Amino acid sequence: MTGPANRWGLAGPPRPAGPYRAPMDRTLATDLARLPELLEATRRTAADTLGALEARPVVPPPPPTSPHQAEPLPVQPTGTASALDAFAQRWAPRLSASAGPRYLGFVTGGATPAALVGDWLTSVHDQNSNSAMDPGGQDLERETITWLRDLFGLGDAHTGTFVSGATMSNTTGLAIAREWLGERLGVSPSEDGAAALGPVRVLSGAPHSSIAKALSVLGLGRSSLVPVPTLPGREAVDPAALDRALADTPGPAVVVANAGTVNTVDFDDLRAVSALRERHAFWLHTDAAFGAFAALSPEHAHLVDGLDASDSVCIDLHKWLNVPYDSAVQFTRRQDLQARVFQNAAAYLGPLGERPDLVHLTPENSHRLRALAAWFTLRAYGREGHREIVERDIACARSLAAALEEDPAFRVLAPVRLNVVCFTLADDPAPARLTALREAAQEEVFVTPTVYAGTPALRAAFSNWRTTHADVRRAAQALRKAAALGAHATGTTPTTCTTPTTRTTGTTAKGTA
Question: Which of 8, 67, 125, 439 has the highest local Cβ count within 10 Å?
Fold first, then answer.
């Protein structure tokens, strides 16, 4: 006998009916027997959620009671249907529409239909694909890596592995660089510790914050990161300044090149940086977390010319490839050093071998089959489908910048080089005013704060496969309305709303910081 049906049309767990001696918990056994019904209820829930993405608040307003009070851990089992009910009531309304077309904070992609299918099947098959003793998932990952290597214009000398995100990709690449430094100095940090290297210099013009975090994790220290001057009015490193910095102290070093900076998506001249190796010994790690996707657009592919010359490369897939979190890749030319760092000696894993299993190539002994979502979206849409996403997002970024430039309330701080619009208030761009603007608009569009050349600012990053020019118009209108409300609140002259225009050519900044 089962309990009453819930909102999903699913009956509750069975009521006790006499002695029960099954080897499995009664509720768990019932869920197993009704798994197709539960999956169908979940499918309906997912379809309803995705269908409402464009209409729901991008960031919902906070609950009336704060802080949120956690419920105690249940003691008695109530089943999956009950958990679906509780999630729908307590948590789903509070989650942002980060998979939707106007979530422009950070660099957040969504999940293409094929990627979503792949991600669901990843959980269904539940593979830990790190060993040649069970090779199917590992072989699928290697095929996907080959496709990605081709997509980004990397040569056969590069091998790759999946990791959880750009931070772990940068950490893995710099761990290999650390071992390369040891090779040059006749020591092995993986055996003797990072202290065996002595002082280390890691040079970069405008590095992502994850670089310093990685250096801390690797025992090289945040202070080993040496800032190098950038070109005037740019976030790209000055090659001449980098040349001088490398000459200042003899010995091997690490250079972190940037292919797509956070604020303005500026690109180091990768060919010029690589050419410095004719005079200096350094490992070249390129952080191309989302900038690597410029390779898909013929108009922008020149920005990543020379990427293949890198010794290691970071590319984040849950950004512009639009696969679910968490998914990134790291590439390197020195898999031998990679295996030296991450090899895991245990009898149950088998020998290292000439072709290292994935367990020997990243910090993780186990990971889900992240490659499957990427495999699905690449197999479904190919190079051309993903090129269209990239080029549409770039056009949308230019369109938003054009709309903001037409409004005297705003100032665009830098050219739109790829997919990020860096902008601020024209009058008194104080952090508190920008926060108020961002929060006033966030039910319609979500943007994130930054500081560019000393000026507090906001940034809108376009990387979602759903985003269209209609979303740009809604975003621009929401920002204008928020700015006008802010002007009334502060006693200044309110802005005049104008109609945003769509423009697919480059935009220039109204002012420079």
Answer: 8
